[in-house]
Design brief:
This protein has three helices and three strands. The protein is an alpha+beta fold. It folds into two domains: 3-41; 51-104, no CATH class. The chain has a three-stranded antiparallel sheet, with no helix packed on it. Helix 2 (72-86) runs antiparallel to helix 3.
Length: 114
């Protein structure tokens, strides 16, 4: 069941509409103002990457351009990016530590323990 996006000519807002059936299409109207003057937009789509492709993108030296291993904020950003790319849930405690490092530059009381 696709979701289509439409742009209203009257209020200039976007509406996302779930199409339950392509055979029995109801008249399309803006969800915000009710106008029938809408145009369907081209939407982005997602293509899942294989695990191999995700790992390969993480080893690309171009992704490490902003990394400063002596800066906890920089390392925290890299760790978040790696977690998102791998689809891993790092857990609440680890997420809080990475956020703390991004906020004040200190991981769990200091980097000397590392």
């Amino acid at each position: 069941m696709p979701i289509y996006e439409y742009l209203c000519h009257d209020c200039k807002k976007r509406s996302s509409i779930l199409m339950l059936s392509l055979r029995n299409l109801a008249p399309i109207s803006c969800r915000h103002c009710g106008s029938s003057k809408v145009d369907r937009l081209l939407s982005r789509f997602a293509a899942p990457k294989s695990e191999e492709a995700r790992l390969e993108s993480l080893t690309d030296p171009g992704n490490l351009g902003g990394l400063d291993e002596n800066d906890p904020q920089s390392v925290a950003r890299l760790m978040k990016k790696m977690g998102e790319e791998m689809g891993e849930d790092v857990g609440g405690d680890m997420e809080a530590m990475m956020d703390q490092a991004g906020d004040d530059g200190d991981i769990a009381g200091g980097t000397d323990a590392l």
